Amino acid sequence: MATQAFTDLKRRLGHAFKWLAAGIATVATLFLLSAWVGSAIPRNAGWVEPESGIEIMVETNGVHTALVLPLVNGAKDWRGEFPASDVRAAHYPYTHISVSWGEREVFLNTPTWSDLSPMVAARIVGVGGDGLLHVAHYVRPAPSDDLRPIRITEGQYRLLVAEIERSIGSEPKRQSYPGYHLQDVFYDAPGRYSVTNTCNQ
Length: 201
What we know:
Layout: H1 2-39, E1 54-60, E2 65-70, E3 96-103, H2 104-109, H3 118-127, E4 129-138, E5 147-152, H4 154-168, E6 176-178, E7 184-193
Antiparallel strand pairs: 1-2, 1-5, 2-3, 3-4, 4-7, 6-7
Helix pairs in contact: 1-3
């Protein structure tokens, strides 16, 4: 009798676990699908690129977005916040930096999207996670399908700089972590990643 009850309990737990796993996978899939659909809806459709200003670039891998900025210009010198000495290949004559923000564990432990497990995706959707900054250093990046140049006014650039500075935080010395390659690095950053505050906000 006890053996039968244990077998029944095991069967019910197994069945419940399968439903839970299916539910988590469904939520994660719906989140990724909604993010993909939402990213296809244009914002600021009436915006017109100015004839003169500062050229930046928007970088994407189809899911995640980064901003590629001049390392130094009259409006901002990023070498204080993001020194080349923080990357392993520090000796190159860098001209630009790529800056993005995301969820800490995904950034540090998911070098490719195939490494993202449904359980991690579901955790991010459900409870979110701590923020982390990703900075890559580039030498004269060339436009491509994944790296689009855009010109903005100096005033707009200064607003962008102020927003990035806010996302960096005020800690005088941030903890850094090795990046995926020789020319990138991760930094601790304030903020909490959630479904309403994602890497593409």
